[in-house]
Amino acid sequence: MRMLARPILLWMAVLAFSLLVIFNTRFTADMSAFLPAHPTAEQAFLVDQLKGGSFSRMILMGVEGGTAAERARLSQALGKALRTDGRFSMVRNGDGAYLKNDQALLFQNRYLLSPSVTPERFTPAGLHAAIGDSIDRLNSPVGLVTKNLLTRDPTGELMSMLRSLDAGHAPHMSDGAWVSPDGQRSLLMAQTQADASDTDAMQTAIDTIRHTFDTVRTGAGDKTATQADRLQLIVTGAPVFSVESRATIKGEVKRFSIISSVAILLLLLLVYRSISMLLLGMLPVLTGVAVAIATVSLGFGTVHGITIGFGTTLLGESIDYSIYYFIQTQGTQAAVTRFWSTIRLGVMTSVIGFAALLLSGFPGLAQIGLYSMAGLITAAVVTRFVLPLLPTPTLNTRPLRGIGEWLQPIFRRLPRLRGGVILLALIAVVVLVVRHDTIWQTGLSGLSPIPEAAKQVDEQLSTDMGAPDTRYFVVIRGDSQEAVLQQAAQASRALQPLVNTHVLSGFDSPSSFLPSQATQEARQHALPDVTTLKANLDQAVQGLPIHADKLAPFVAAVEVARHQPLLTADTLKGSSFGLALDNLLQYRNGQWLALMPVRISAAKAPQDTVGTQKAESKIGPLIERALAAGQVHDALFVDMLGASNRLYDGYLNNTITLSLLGVLGIVVLLAVTLRSPRRLLQVLTPLAIAVVLVMAGLNLLGEELTLLHLVGLLLIVAVGSNYALFFSRGQSPDALTLASLILANLTTVIAFGTLAFSQLPILQAFGSTVAPGAWLALLLSAVFAAPGESGEPGEPGEKAAS
Amino acid sequence: MRIRWMHVVVFLGLAAASLSTRGAFAAGTKPPTVAPWNIDRLMQGLAAHQPRQADYVEEKYLGMLDMPLISSGKLTYRAPDYLEKETLSPRYVVMTLSGETMTLTEDHQTQTIDLSAHPEAEAYADSIRGLLSGDLALLKKSFSLQLTGDRAHWSLVLRPAGGRIGGLIDSISVTGSGNIMRRLEYDQSDGDRSIMTIQPKARP
Predict the structure, then answer these.
(1) How far apart are CA A251 and CA B102, in angstroms?
(2) What is the per-residue pLDDT across B60-93, written as a single tens digit (0 to 9) for each?
């Protein structure tokens, strides 16, 4: 007895340890787990920006409802409260303090910032042209502004800076707060301190925003509750997406696990007619899931939501083991031995299939591989060594045998369909060959758990902000801030011709917000001393309607600028320039990065995927050539969308290769074990046809296959191999075996079938692939079963315990 | 980069344009024969006529310059609240006012400015809307009004009743005859002034 109890003690210890690990596991849902572990430079930039770039730490907020004044007041109160909260590195809502600060900063440093400051500009001829132009501009309605500046800034440096900074980007203002162009929404923007990959911190930041909003709304004075209720807060942005998709994945996984579990449990209860047997049957499954999660947690540090989603699906295969065990081991010892040899082969087949995924360069996929292997092996081991030790009530097999006997003649006639099935498979192959362009989905969007409506809100708010998603970047890398700023300035000069020829509609550069120290020094050196400037001015105003002595404030300002301290990142902190710089000049992983968002002319912007590829293939080389001609070193042109699409395609190709490798492994294993080409063919044919029919079917239904479909296809092979092995044992299965196979199949179809109704693309992909696939695999295994021999009736009565 | 004072002063130019436009647009119609002549009659007359297009010449006298600046262009009005000032010489600039939104296009760049963001600018907006619609009450909110002369040669002076607007301008003087505004003088607090002469286009 003590010897017998040992496996039970071991099992309990493993289970307890697994649960302990699970309680300490961090669950993530960010897509970076599905990014490659060894990326290219472009992918590294993409991944890094997704994980911690300033864009992915940006939360956008909108206040709706109420009156414009109420919205503005609330925006200001919210902004003020969030600014004092340590979780945000920056909160902007058009606050007036920033505006004043910006104006002063811009004006005081105009001779360091303005790109027009060159030695030529301060020669008599240069001054004459610049002052003449400024006077001409006084005629414009804006002239009445520049009038007040003319004596201090007669060369128009302020206006020249404003023009180069592309003023159209800032949001609209109303009542001292940012608003959408239609004025119906106040806008705020906050950047979190924490890295975007820290989903828990993002969650706290978003909760803080919501709570603060509720507090300032209720505390907003004399408004009645109903009025206050009309004011609503919208929160969006990358951090919100990562938090919400984690919650959605968790919620959906939970919901569908419960639905399918209940359905399966009811079905099993109907068959077993014994609660204790039902509970025993669940042991291998639950242990498998627990050990699988714990293994992934120990192996990877975190567990991805998609991996957990896979847990439900694992239920489908591992519950089969206990079903087979309870039903089929009712027979003789010989039958039991034969049963285990079949199951062992089935488990090994599945494990080899999933082992291929372990080799994947993508942590997310490797997680799924490890999860499945650990789960299936555990479930099988628990069924084999733990279940027999537990007191199992005797199963009344009569009703099952009845079902099996009723179905046997039907299944025996199935091989007659062989010709038709082969023809159907050939048609499916033709369909897939003809429509091979439409089989796979390109891009990551198919995997995204973010609902379309949320995406639209985000797009709307970004557009309102005047900051639509930036897709193209020139990225400059260097050892020091000074080096990347110099290179960025060089790149700006190299790219300017593309703007002039309308290839690009514009670009931003950190060097326009913070010129390199060298540039600033050069500009200072371009400014003449008082004597020279006065002499030059006297000549310059010849023919202009202004006297040189009216420009004394200008002479004084230039003298101050010649000796003023150079601008640094610290000087800019807290201003709009500081914000822009935060985004465009980053220190990441021991390297300085200058980001230059590049905007392609609307006329040339791609409208569709094909257009995208065309434009991309054109724009990329154009920019790279311009950069090379401008002697810009260490510059990288990144198309964020293109990069993520290529990343996904690489991922898909990698997975296809690995899946084929897995299938190859399965074939080798079966060939070695079965030692019979005929049986090998008998096992493989139904599986291959099931996969082909599912692929063709989904394709004809207009569903584009994603990675998760692919993993689902692998699962068809894994689950289906059990059926095929039972049907290839040289005789068609006896009534009980047939009944157990059908029951196992039914649970699998239920588990996956419910998933097919999930709103989450990842779960839906599994469901729509595996449910029909598993059913087809069983049916086709019967179609291709060994012909002629009739099934032995199983020996009744004896309980098969070892 | 939004510069507040810029918008305000931009708006001054707009105010000038709009006020003058209103007169120009009324050109070509016969004055009503009803008596007596007072500010209510003038407002009614201005309100009763749908303005359209006019050419303008603007002279700006700035203290710092030895000579006046001269520019010219076109004005276009569409009821109820669209106004465009297109400067053709010496530099091309287009300014539009539509509802609460103002745009300024210069050097191929367009800026959009929300008027409600600037209370002082809003006062001017009220004055324009007041004149265009003949809404005396609206005008009186920000300005005190003084009408002199007779129907054939009248002069209306608007003086800021207070607020931030008072720190920027002393007065706006509109002169005209009948329902026609001919000339608009705009005296700034700093002594600079601008004079806009309006030449209405013949009705098609």
Answers:
(1) 48
(2) 998 888 899 999 999 887 766 787 889 998 888 8
Say if CB A183 and CB A174 are below 8 A apart.
Answer: yes
Residues of chain A found within 8 Å of residue B87, distances taken between Cβ atoms: 139-141
Question: For A136-178, what is each residue's pLDDT tens digit?
Answer: 888 876 666 668 888 999 998 988 887 766 544 567 777 778 8
Contact B104 A141 (CB under 8 A): yes
Distance CA A611, CA A620 (A): 14
Which string of DSSP letters, residue by residue, matches B136-168? Answer: HHHHHHHEEEEEEE-SSSEEEEEEE-SSGGGGT
- Residues facing residue B59 across a β-bridge: B70, B195
Question: Which are the contacts of A570, defined by CB distance < 8 A and separation ≥ 6?
Answer: none
Considering only alpha carbons, which residue of chain A is nearest residue B188? A144
Q: Are B153 and B180 in contact (CB under 8 A)?
A: no
Chain B: give the shortest CA distance to residue A231, in Å: 21
Instruction: Specify if A612 maps to a domain.
Output: no
Q: Would you say residue A380 lies in a domain?
A: yes
E strand residue ranges, chain B: 53-61, 69-78, 82-89, 93-98, 101-106, 109-114, 143-149, 154-160, 169-177, 180-188, 193-200
Q: What are the CB-based long-range contacts (under 8 Å, 24+) for A268-272?
A: A268/A319, A268/A323, A268/A743, A268/A747, A271/A399, A271/A400, A271/A743, A272/A326, A272/A395
In the prediction, which pLDDT does A29 show?
67
With an 8 Å Cβ cutoff, are A183 and B100 in contact? yes
Q: What confidence tier does B136 reach under pLDDT thresholds 50, 70, 90? A: confident
The edge-to-edge listing of strands for the beta sheet with B180-188 is B109-114, B101-106, B93-98, B82-89, B69-78, B53-61, B193-200, B180-188, B169-177, B154-160, B143-149
Domain that includes residue A439, residue range: 2-24+241-447+645-783
CA separation for the pair A543, B67 (Å, rounded): 11
State the pLDDT at residue A794: 37
Axis crossing angle, helix A305-328 with helix A761-783, rounded to the nearest 10:
30
Q: Give the domain CATH number at B161.
A: 2.50.20.10
**Nearest alpha carbon to residue A691 among A650, A726, A656:** A656
Number of structural domains (chain B) is 1
A103 in reach of chain B (CB within 8 A): yes
| Single pTM value for the model | 0.66
The number of distinct structural domains making up chain A is 1
Specify if A56 maps to a domain.
no
Is the separation of the CB atoms in A704 and A649 below 8 Å? no
Show the domain range for B32.
4-200
Domain membership of residue A177 (yes or no) is no
Handedness of CA A128, A133, A134, A138 (dihedral sign): positive
DSSP secondary structure letters along A183-247: SSEEEEEEEESS-TT-HHHHHHHHHHHHHHHHHHHHTSSS--HHHHHH-EEEEESHHHHHHHHHH
Tell me which chain B residue has its CA closest to the CA of residue A172: B114
The yes-or-no verdict on residue B32 having pLDDT over 50 is: no
> d(Cα B36, Cα A632) in Å, to the nearest integer?
78
**ipTM (interface pTM):** 0.77
**Contacts by B89-97, CB closer than 8 A, 24 or more apart:** B90/A136, B90/A139, B91/A136, B91/A137, B91/A139, B91/A140, B93/A139, B93/A140, B93/A141, B93/A142, B95/A141, B95/B10, B95/B13, B95/B14, B95/B17, B97/B14, B97/B18, B97/B125, B97/B128
